[in-house]
Amino acid sequence: MYRNTSYLLLSVLKSRFAEKHSIWSSIGLVLRHVSTTNTTQKRFIQSFVKPINCRFDFKHNCCLTSRSQPLLRQPSSQTGFQLNQSIRRSLNTSHTMAFTTDQRGQQNSSDYRVFIKKGDTGEPVSPWHDIPLFADEGNRIYNMVVEIPRWTNAKMEIATKEPLNPIKQDIKSDKLRYVRNCFPHKGYIWNYGALPQTWEDPKHLDEATGCKGDNDPIDVIEIGSRVADRGEVIKVKALGVMALIDEGETDWKVIAIDVRDELAAQLNDVRDVEMLKPGLIRATYEWFKIYKIPDGKPANEFAFNGEAKDREFAEKTIAETHKYWQELVNASSNATDLDLKSTTLGNSSKIDNQNAIEIINQRQESAKAVPKPIDDQTAIDKWYYITLP
Amino acid sequence: MYRNTSYLLLSVLKSRFAEKHSIWSSIGLVLRHVSTTNTTQKRFIQSFVKPINCRFDFKHNCCLTSRSQPLLRQPSSQTGFQLNQSIRRSLNTSHTMAFTTDQRGQQNSSDYRVFIKKGDTGEPVSPWHDIPLFADEGNRIYNMVVEIPRWTNAKMEIATKEPLNPIKQDIKSDKLRYVRNCFPHKGYIWNYGALPQTWEDPKHLDEATGCKGDNDPIDVIEIGSRVADRGEVIKVKALGVMALIDEGETDWKVIAIDVRDELAAQLNDVRDVEMLKPGLIRATYEWFKIYKIPDGKPANEFAFNGEAKDREFAEKTIAETHKYWQELVNASSNATDLDLKSTTLGNSSKIDNQNAIEIINQRQESAKAVPKPIDDQTAIDKWYYITLP
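ok -> structure tokens follow
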């Protein structure tokens, strides 16, 4: 039976390999189990680690890379293991894994948090304050923190009022918030997230929209082909911006493309989007306009008649929100309820690595936590048919 | 470590509870592991089985229902366990579990099969030949075998040429077939499947379409709100039918609604669909028209200018394909390469229960099999933007 458990667990892990590189850190739990194997099991284990160019050393009971270095090294606060750095890089050749995630609490519960750490050292960072806005300022490439992968429904967001600003699920009326599916759309139709080191200042009345900021980092929709991971930090180009007025607040939506996307070189402004992805801007407009209607809210409005402004306008808007953020974190005192703790900024909100680790460790490790069953999957799956007059 | 493995496995299983009732059969594997537990673990196990109104009896090392009956009874060919019948019913109050599934082989591989069994006795059936076309003939309610759940991409279908006609993934050019996402759609936009005991006779030239049948049972799209499970048998009302001409063959698409859907009472003909789900018929037309274009095929055509015919026409078409199926299975000899084995029909293709079980047992049990990583998830996730002239 013990063998079956390992098999089943391995199979579950393996099935998730293609979509979740982070699951590999959990394999440490499994690989420690294989010391008492027979030939069949040994062959199975080898076939399991072969796709990542590894072999299992049964004598030393550890998984070795092609350079005979251990795949996992201790310790990680989450699983007791961490992937060998070079392997982690090779597993993510298409990603630049400057950052990794540390998930805490029960998934699908109000306790669930995704903390962000540096990929090389494992040091915690705030995705809002510590990740630089620019990945490459000269080439105008921004970092984007992915909060919501395409086609999912859970409304995940950077917790601006919590230390280290982990990603958590929004709560409305004491319930976890999921966006409804408005036909023909399924969940979010882009990878959705935020640009770090930006802030839509709620005291600032925007000239263009006539509304105040929504007190959050600026939102981004990434329109690339790949479905990103929750908590992933990707490099994007800004292509344009739309000015949603969401319940009376200015809520900029920057339109961006992952620089690794096969169309990235051809997408340089919002007009290119309509050329290469016809209908997407219109669908985006409609999506934001109606997405709260199934929850009994009125249709949202847009400034500029719903028109998407160009790249230059988008970059100017980002620069403004970056300036508001700088004023926020450099103020002599924090007059807001926002949490400005940072592990890298040289301001008064800086905390050291040990403090940051303690903040994360106050929360239960997800590896041992039981994901909560989703209360009403059928309600989340429902398709709403909204027709506007 | 052992405890962590169980925890992790339990958590994986539990996370799937809401969506997959069938996963509960796997819990048998886990529950046999808890005999050496401490108080914390015991409490954990109790909290785990409480949502299904059970308690774990640590003395006898089994899970008891609220009526103190074992949750699992032996033996099942798949896991060594089967869910207690009454619990299975209570877990599926919203389903009529007249049939269950038995999955074999590696998921995401050419070996993967979903066999169908009777819910009460576990006897294998052919979903094509043994499941009655009508669930309730007087009220014109049909059985539908779900092959492809909404929003998924894997092209699963009843294997008409294999004994017991399990559901398998279609292969094209030696590769597992996935339908592409054509913007704004994600995967199949309905629960897709077939009506049992029907056949589109490839020798029969259809008067209405001028084309021959495609040699398969008739296809159904179920437009209800719920995302169905692969291999599930649901009761549906026919509302209309569209006549797709797919690479020169008549390929009827019956439009149907799950009788349990909240709108089922209001949906009685195809015109009701446009009233209650505006845009769905048009989206369906476009979906079928363009879905093979990303694979280099031309746009599909429809008979009747793409118009969806009404319920009466649909029922007439179903009746015809039922008649062709009857002629097929009642012929004195099988002149086709289709597999007509049946466990319930009184014709020359009848096999007994033992033979049927042996057919299934020739294939590896999925519980121990390792799901294959999907070769190129990114390609499956890609969104194609198709504009027709």
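The longest strand of chain B covers residues 233-246.
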